[in-house]
Amino acid sequence: MPHHAVTTATALGPQIIQLRSETEAQRQLPKSIISALVESNLFRQVITTDIGGLELDPVVSLEVYEALAKSEASVGWAVWNSSLPCLLSRFLSDSVRKEIFGDPTLTYTSSTRPTGRASMENDSFRISGHWSLVSGCMHADWIGFMCMVEKDGEIQMAEQGGPQMLMAFIPSGSYEIIDTWHVGGLRGTGSHDITVDDLMVPMGKTFSPMGPSQLDRPIGRIPIGCTMSAGHAAICLGIAQAALESVIDLARSKITVDPVPGLPDRASNQFLVAEAATKIAALRAHLHLTLGSLWKICQSGSEWTPDDLAQVWSAAVTTGRECRSLVSALYEVAGSPALYQDFSLERCHRDIHAAMQHVVIQRLWLEEAGKVKFGMDPTNPLFAW
Predict the structure, then answer these.
(1) Are 164 and 211 in contact (CB under 8 A)?
(2) Which residues span the domain enclosing 34?
(3) Is residue 263 located within the same domain as residue 312?
(4) What are phi and psi of 38, to 5 degrees?
(5) 56-105 pLDDT tens trace
(6) Are the C-beta atoms of 270 and 320 separated by less than 8 Å?
(7) How does residue 176 score in pLDDT terms, banded at 50, 70 and 90?
(8) Positive or negative torsion for Cα 329, 334, 337, 341
(9) Strands in 122-267 per DSSP E
(10) Measured between alpha carbons, how far apart are the two ends of the chain, in Å?
(11) What is the crossing angle of helices 363-373 and 306-334, to 10°?
(12) CA distance 219 to 90
């Protein structure tokens, strides 16, 4: 029986689909959708239950992301993207975590691009910077911004090498949103640029993203990087499933005027839809299996191994890449109807290509996973983050 969060996400589908045109026109999610997501607590899937979150099994979250993305990729993206600052809350003290994340009416986003500067002054950090691609910034109440720490104008270096990083949580109204999100794919995510100018942030609302977790619960122990990659892959699965269903629906209604077999009558198309359905199901099952195995390790309190992480990274990145190929193939067989914006496949095509630009689903993570398979150590420090 599906978890109630998945049932809720699925039930929101008709409302989300009905507001697609508004989502596109506004280049952000309509207020009614945001309200529905807040009321259903879907923005708070990885927040602990002691402060009103759902604290879901991560595999259930994959199902939620996929269900939402099937209706509208930008909605799935917004909910998935908000899980990152919620996962990052593990680095805050209990009191600050409750202060920022304890109100069920608030929403969150973040930028891990280290394009800000933070310099310590007494018990605070002075924050300035410019961040791009801040998805969900139009409705967020708190945003986490990644900065490089500087002192006397010079970037400080971490003991393990590289610049010393700091993330600061900043409330809405403390930054300027710059209207830059004029795009095709994932248009409804409202991923504008943001600037912050000489803002003092209390030290308690900042943390090192490489520091120890302050949350001794499974959700505070699960690795953030590969978990986010798996969530991204679930969005890709939702887009691919929507594309497949669009082609099947088109085949039932499209009238062929050319002297050639119709769309459903061609053996190549029959092969494609059967193969696509099987690949989507197989990719989903393996993604759930690998993340579920990692979750069980975190629940038991045992230590995960690099191979445990490699399994999740491999499943996630491969799922995204395969879904992109499937959507492109389905777009091609649909023919000219796929050109029109009122046909859902047109949106699936641009959304999947936009989604696959995200760093968390890039080929480099497969290469790192391959090193582990060869018995080598991964070199990217975020592989085990």
Answers:
(1) no
(2) 4-101
(3) yes
(4) -65, -45
(5) 999 999 999 999 999 999 999 999 999 999 999 999 999 999 999 999 99
(6) no
(7) very high
(8) negative
(9) 124-134, 142-151, 154-155, 165-171, 176-178, 192-202, 206-207
(10) 33
(11) 140
(12) 9
Question: pTM of the prediction?
Answer: 0.95
Cα(179)–Cα(170) distance, integer angstroms: 19
Q: Are residues 159 and 273 in the same domain?
A: no
Q: Are 62 and 120 in contact (CB under 8 A)?
A: no
Last residue of a domain, one of 86, 101, 116: 101
Strands 142-151 and 154-155: antiparallel
> With contact defined as beta carbons under 8 Å apart, do 146 and 114 qualify?
yes
The one-letter amino acid at 259? P
Are 159 and 200 spatial neighbours (Cβ–Cβ below 8 Å)?
A: no
The DSSP string of 320-375 is: HHHHHHHHHHHHHHH-GGGGSTTSHHHHHHHHHHHHTTSGGGSHHHHHHHHHHHTT
Strands of the chain (E only): list them. 108-121, 124-134, 142-151, 154-155, 165-171, 176-178, 192-202, 206-207
CATH classification at residue 152: 2.40.110.10
Name the domain count of the chain: 3
Single-letter residue type at 133: L
Tell whether 228 and 370 lie within a shared domain: yes
Cβ contacts of residue 326 below 8 Å, gap of 6+?
240, 243, 244, 276, 279, 280
Same domain, 121 and 90: no
Name every residue whose Cβ is closer than 8 Å to that of residue 186 and which is 6 or more positions away in sequence: 73, 74, 77, 135, 351, 354, 355
pLDDT tens digits for range 181-207: 999 999 999 999 999 999 999 999 999
Helix (H) or strand (E) holding 252: helix 224-253
Three-class SS of residue 170?
strand
315-350 pLDDT per residue, tens:
999 999 999 999 999 999 988 888 888 889 999 999
